[in-house]
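User: What would this chain look like folded?
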Amino acid sequence: MPKLSVLDQSVAAAGRPQSDAIRQSLSLARHCESLGYHRFWVSEHHSHPSIVGTAPEVLMAALATQTQRIRLGSAGVMLPHYAALKVAEQFRVLEALAPGRIDLGVGRAPGSDGRTAQLLNPDRYASERFPQQVLELQAWLRDDAFPSGHPGHGVQAFPQGPGCPTLWMLGSSDYGAQLAAHFGLPYAFAYFITDGQGADEALALYRSGFRPQQAGDQPHAVVCVWALAAETEDQAWHLFQSRARWRMDRNLGQIGPLLPPAQAQRDYSPAEQMALERLRAQAFVGTGVQVRDKLEALAARLEVDEIVVITWTHDPAAQARSYELLMQA
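Assistant: Here's the prediction, encoded as structure tokens.
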């Protein structure tokens, strides 16, 4: 079985305040640490009625105070919204709170719609400078000196310490894979965003193009997969109805909180029925053993030794139980 980690997105649930989702992320992190999961990552989205985790660096600070062993990370910080120096400072503070446990995953996508992205950073060309930002962020995290003439020459990111956060590249296309390879960074492919499309190609590009920055550096890739386990297969597919309804509504431009399974059914068009069948055929859903077998097969095919699991359920107890069953299997 590959090593297991967690990506939690603080998903809003119908009938409960959005603030509950943030507190539930804290509870889930403690639970997953007790189960033996390797990492606990949180995401960044903006003006998104379903995913209400807007500030991973703030949430990670709370997580650092409530956990002792599990690695904590962002999946990720949408770097074009921010100054690289400020991100380096935030994550150096996190490293001071949880030494040796901090992952800084960065991405280029806005994590929002175009208008919201403009409000976060009015610079329309910010994403074009993403590679340069990554280089600067890497330097400030490692306390590497900037060359004379660079605006960052002589500027340091504090607090300093014996270690520094691990910088990760996130992506769901060839672009992120090639950038991760070029900079010699570990790479996380968002399998759950593409339903697996492009995963083989992106990982092959990453491994073939990897350029070690230091002696001994090797390619390190993980995939982030949506999965759901329950006591029985029927129960798992029942819980899956919340996610399925959300996906079908999203395709129509309707985004909202996650509905309970009993309220998630609606009449689907013939085209939606076909999309649902494809979704079910590709889904990592079932008993703990069934999901384990699917994840093991995926890890073997993609040649990864770690899978990051994301699970949405309307009921927090069902989500916690899913992670429990998966680890037990």
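The mean pLDDT is 96. If you want, I can go into more detail on any region.
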